[in-house]
Amino acid sequence: MRLQHPTTAACDACGDRFLGQNGLNMHKKKAHRHPTTAACDACGDRFLGQNGLNMHKKKAHMVNIYI
């Protein structure tokens, strides 16, 4: 049987939960430090700009992007 650790801190931006404030702070710095401007219509992942979104679509969804 695997023990479940109680979570003590939740991200107010996305709802992810962490064991402590340090984990939450690290998450916020990495995941929420820049506003996202482009969202993938296939999976909802968000990116800083159109280039990041295009790269994601090519790799994750094998979509050819023509400009």
Automatic annotation (TrEMBL):
UniProt-listed InterPro entries: Znf_C2H2_sf, Znf_C2H2_type
Provide the alphabetized UniProt keywords.
Metal-binding, Zinc, Zinc-finger
Among the GO molecular function terms of this UniProt record, one is: zinc ion binding
**Matching SMART domains:** ZnF_C2H2 (SM00355)
**Which Pfam family, giving just one, matches this sequence?**
zf-C2H2_6
Instruction: Name all C2H2-type domain ranges.
Output: 9-37, 38-61
Q: Which SUPFAM superfamilies match?
A: beta-beta-alpha zinc fingers
What is the name of the protein in this document? Zinc finger protein
